[in-house]
């Protein structure tokens, strides 16, 4: 089961990179009013993980003193899935009138991201899934997901300003 979630995270990374390319090729067809409204959402999502991690670290230091490494790993991995669901939602709305097949793929990506985030939100599920795996492996995948997310987010938000 652990490898399934790792494979899903890797597939979402590649799909996000591919989606950025499709949006780049079709940016002339995008409604600028809708894009401006959705850009605000992406800007908020840029800062939300930082705030969440600060709050989680404070909770771990003050209240949850056991299994801090597992808790941080869990928060990191699940937050990435939530961020991916938001950016795939953004891409879905932007491409809804462009390509029907591509839009259906991004809708599936939103569903997979949300399902993965909801399923792994409980710490017991996360520990059960990654019981037989060294926690450095999901942390590595989470870092890859985070770097690709911020790269694509930056590219999506700055392509109008060129």
From TrEMBL:
Name listed for the protein in its UniProt record: Uncharacterized protein
């Amino acid at each position: 089961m652990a490898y399934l979630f790792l494979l899903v995270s890797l597939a979402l990374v590649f799909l996000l990179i591919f989606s950025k390319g499709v949006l780049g090729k079709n940016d002339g067809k995008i409604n600028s009013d809708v894009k401006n409204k959705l850009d605000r959402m992406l800007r908020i999502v840029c800062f939300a993980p930082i705030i969440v991690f600060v709050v989680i670290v404070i909770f771990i230091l003050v209240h949850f003193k056991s299994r801090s490494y597992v808790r941080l790993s869990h928060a990191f991995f699940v937050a990435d899935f939530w961020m991916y669901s938001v950016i795939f939602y953004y891409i879905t709305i932007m491409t809804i009138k462009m390509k029907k097949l591509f839009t259906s793929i991004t809708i599936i990506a939103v569903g997979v991201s949300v399902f993965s985030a909801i399923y792994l939100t409980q710490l017991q599920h996360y520990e059960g899934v990654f019981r037989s795996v060294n926690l450095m492996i999901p942390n590595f995948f989470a870092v890859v997901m985070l770097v690709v997310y911020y790269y694509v987010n930056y590219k999506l938000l700055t392509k109008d300003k060129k």
